Amino acid sequence: MKKTKLVNNLMLFLAIIGLCLYTFTIISAAINSSEDTPPSFLRLLVTSLGAILATNIGAVMGIAVQNPDGPNVFRDRNTYNLKKLFTEPDSYKIRVFASYFYVIALLIGLVSWGIKGFAENSVSPIIEELSRTLLGVILGVMSFYLTPNGD
């Protein structure tokens, strides 16, 4: 079944709402103290969207590595043109954009916790979790590149 433009716009609109809530929660958790924990709905939203974004980044990296001769959207300037991203959406470019968005969110968590000296319970649990997740992403990428592939 082919999606209509109206359905695609609705899906994009809902995705933008989710990413805005995700961003709001992370920034508010980074600014507030460890005692000001976000409501459970927002914590669940960050965890759920984080899982989707983590899966997405794995898929994007896997596709880029498995098909090195294919179109390289990382080098294509149109990938980073936000106007074209929303007016002429290409599913792979949206996935790449979401991957960068996710890594930036993880870096916000790491920097926020680093400012507090990485002391336990000095920041919101969301910030600690984002920092640990970034470590997992980095370790995953490093293990891929450092594992011999039979060459």
Strands, helices and their partners?
Elements (H helix, E strand, L loop, with lengths): L4 H27 L8 H27 L15 H6 L3 H25 L9 H22 L5
Helix pairs in contact: 1-2, 1-4, 2-4, 4-5
Number of domains: 1
Largest sheet composition: none
Q: Helices and strands, in N-to-C order?
A: HHHHH
* Rg computed from alpha carbons, rounded to a whole number of angstroms: 17 Å
Mean pLDDT, nearest integer?
Answer: 81
End-to-end Cα distance, whole Å, is 43 Å
Count of discrete alpha- or pi-helical segments spanning 4 or more residues: 5
User: What ranges have pLDDT less than 50 throughout 5 or more consecutive residues?
Assistant: none
Shape: globular
Percentage of residues assigned to helices: over 70%
Strand content: under 5%
Structural class assignment: mainly alpha
Number of strands: 0
